[in-house]
């Protein structure tokens, strides 16, 4: 057995079933090992940012990491933005980055670079394997480090990959359960809830599933506390039968307003809320200065245990949660705009769908309209780096087989990682992409005004940097050029018909929805 075979075998024995790849010469023995070691599916992506975005979407749905295969420092560099997004969402990933053979590094060949330095910016753990005999153990350690929410990057020199490994595979690793929260900490939270002061429970984390939401609603009602999710949790269950829970608004002004009466903020898997950006005259921290922020559970602690304990101690088990009914908006007619798309999506979304949200300004319209649709999961962009949505759609489809995935995409965001469409076609993934083709970086027009730059009004050069409509992008041509069936919708009736058809047939589809900007 060579090093690469030992590495792959150890991944398989640790429950890793997927490797998103974009290899080069230094990874050829790894690639060869894919045919020697059973149990791992390899999915080719044509740009490294696609494969790490796919790994993030997969982890959100599968509750475990995928592995990635990246080509030295430049391949890793291309992948960084979506590793960053996964890191901010506390989603696990095991990156394998090929390197030159150890003895070749001193020659400073063209692709030589500081891989560990690049990896360190987005990884919790980085290690360069030193010998073929140890690669199995190193791989097991990478999986252990990734656990349920960290980024582990293992550098694999070519000679470690091709050298003999007398030790074979290392024993597989299983992820330990989340850490339990002490009774003392739970009692402190209860004291805050009983303090008589206005208190908010804010939940976040990798997965706010239906059960967690319902528990939180009961607890909030029993304690007389407001309940809220963080602005962009990695995954949240929504739709009919899920609990009525506010989401902290994105805009700083609105978020501050949302929390201005709060004296105690109890955080469950959520971080203390902060403004997405700094703006002149707006605070960075969202909660009022005098508010007590209390971390009841971090994202890596046992959120179910904490919610269960609160339910019991507050006598909330029999409290009826506030639950969304099933209420579908009528199918729209006439001109096509974001609200019409949102109404059609809400009306036609199948039960158990997964919505990947990178619709940027267009999602402001679609989000509220879908809250009483059929039950579904909603994946958010956790790290703010756009170019995540289409890749995350790839990963979500692979991590949740049998479920329909709907990607809501801004036209600008889609272009960063447009080659994800090719992987959707090649793997025949059950993904419907809705492009909100508004021909603008619309959010940046708003942000320009909010920052107060140039008095809030862009000059012609500035305006040209926010306008992606010249030339217009033809997403039907782009998609069909990569093997994805695509149609263009210019009226609400066309959108209804195309979205319904896409919901009823498996495989990838793209709808190029010609809409005015939501903010116009
Ligand atoms: C990696 C990265 N580059 C640039 C940005 C800045 N940025 C934020 S939103 C945006 C444009 C989004 O445009 P689009 O997807 O068309 O959505 P719209 O604003 O029109 O709704 C840009 C460039 C970013 N967030 N991340």
Protein described:
- The structure is a single chain.
- The chain is α/β, with parallel strands linked by helices.
- Helices cover 38% and strands 18% of the residues.
- The chain contains 20 helices and 18 strands.
- The protein has helices at residues 3-13, 28-33, 48-62, 72-88, 115-120, 135-146, 158-162, 183-193, 210-223, 252-259, 303-313, 338-348, 361-369, 389-399, 411-416, 420-426, 442-451, 460-464, 475-481, 492-504, and strands spanning 18-21, 41-44, 67-71, 93-99, 125-128, 151-157, 199-203, 226-229, 235-238, 246-247, 264-268, 292-297, 353-358, 376-380, 405-410, 431-437, 485-489, 509-514.
- A seven-stranded mixed β-sheet has the order 9-14-13-15-16-18-17, sandwiched between helices. It has a six-stranded parallel β-sheet with strand order 2-1-3-4-6-5, sandwiched between helices. A five-stranded parallel β-sheet has the order 10-8-7-11-12, with helices on one face.
- α9 runs parallel beside α11 (303-313) and α12 (338-348) packs parallel to α20 (492-504).
- The longest helix has 17 residues, at 72-88.
- The N and C termini lie far apart (62 Å).
- The model has no long low-confidence stretch (mean pLDDT 97).
- The structure holds thiamine diphosphate.
- The site of thiamine diphosphate has 18 residues, from α13, α15 and α17.
